Amino acid sequence: MTAAYFDQFNIVSLITIRTPFLGDFAVSFTNSSLMMLSVITVFWLLFKGERIIPTRWQLIMELIHSVIRTMVRDNLGKEGAKYFPFVLCLFIFIVLLNVFGLFPYVFTPTVHIIVTFGLSLSILIGVTIIGLFNFKTNFMSLFMPGGAPLMLAPFLVLIETISYMSRAISLGVRLAANLSAGHLLFAILSGFTFDMLTNGLALLSIFPMLIMIFITLLEMAVAVIQAYVFCLLTTIYLGDTVALH
Predict the structure, then answer these.
(1) Among residues 16, 43, 180, 184, which one has the fewest Cβ atoms lying within 10 Å of its Cβ?
(2) What is the DSSP letter of 48?
(3) Spatial CB neighbours of 240, under 8 Å, sequence gap ≥ 6
(4) Measured between alpha carbons, how far is 41 from 35 in angstroms, rounded to an integer?
(5) How far apart are CA 237 and CA 124, in angstroms?
(6) Across 88-113, average pLDDT
(7) How far is CA 228 from CA 10, 67, 82, 222, 223, in A?
(8) Which of 47-51, 137-141, 160-164, 168-172 has the lowest mean pLDDT?
(9) Residue 159 maps to a domain
(10) pLDDT value at position 8?
């Protein structure tokens, strides 16, 4: 029974390509790849609104555009406006993956730590490369707080380096853990409710069904909030490429 709750997290190979040139190595197109490709397609369609009098959906996209632009401007200033397209695309990509994952029988790639950690690690590497390109060796001043005693330098550099590298872990784990917990809770409650209905306890099953409705609304909020938090922290980290603190 416990294993059944985790079946929703299984990665299933849909198409596998093997060639003699690759040896034992195979290229697979999985349900996770399918979801990401579907989200990219929907994402492209969402930004095709060009009406002077916008539709309801175009109004939602313009609202998201405004919120993300304000977030980037408040954290990065005018110099950080160049990162706005990246942050906007990142937000919509993650939020669509999260929201689509709430539908039955739809796989959610963002519950896998390898996906979220891959995103966060790529962002951290990008921030480091851009920071080194913009500030050269002065970028290393991030690892040595100003005004600190020289005798504490080795310890502070070690601590700051670990803290800097842990950004990738915390950014990725936070997103995957919150979504995984919500999906597991929903699976457990739905299984419990189904058992009550099949055992003739329809009246008593009303209470867990009401909880499921609340959990569904909560999960929808979490899907959007976690995407926003991920992008907010990404914006803050990008601040190191605009100005050293």
Answers:
(1) 16
(2) T
(3) 127, 131, 139, 142
(4) 10
(5) 8
(6) 87
(7) 26, 10, 19, 10, 9
(8) 47-51
(9) yes
(10) 65
Q: How confident is the model at residue 51 (pLDDT cuts 50, 70, 90)?
A: low
Angle between helices 153-198 and 206-238 (to 10 degrees): 160
Number of domains in the chain: 1
Reading the block at residue 54, the tokens are 């916008």
Smallest Cα–Cα separation from 93: which of 24, 130, 42?
Answer: 42
CA dist., res. 88 & res. 73, Å (int): 12
Side-chain half-sphere CA neighbours of 158 within 13 A: 4
DSSP state of 112: S
- Has residue 32 been placed in a domain? no
Query: Which domain covers residue 222, as residue numbers?
Result: 42-244
What CA–CA distance (Å, rounded) separates 32 from 30?
A: 5
Question: Residue 18: which region, alpha, beta or left (left: phi > 0; alpha: psi -120 to 50)?
Answer: beta
Residue 1 structure tokens: 């029974």
What confidence score (pLDDT) does residue 228 get?
A: 93
The answer to whether the CB of 102 falls within 8 A of the CB of 216 is yes
DSSP letters, 66-86, are HHHHHHHHHHHTTGGGGGHHH
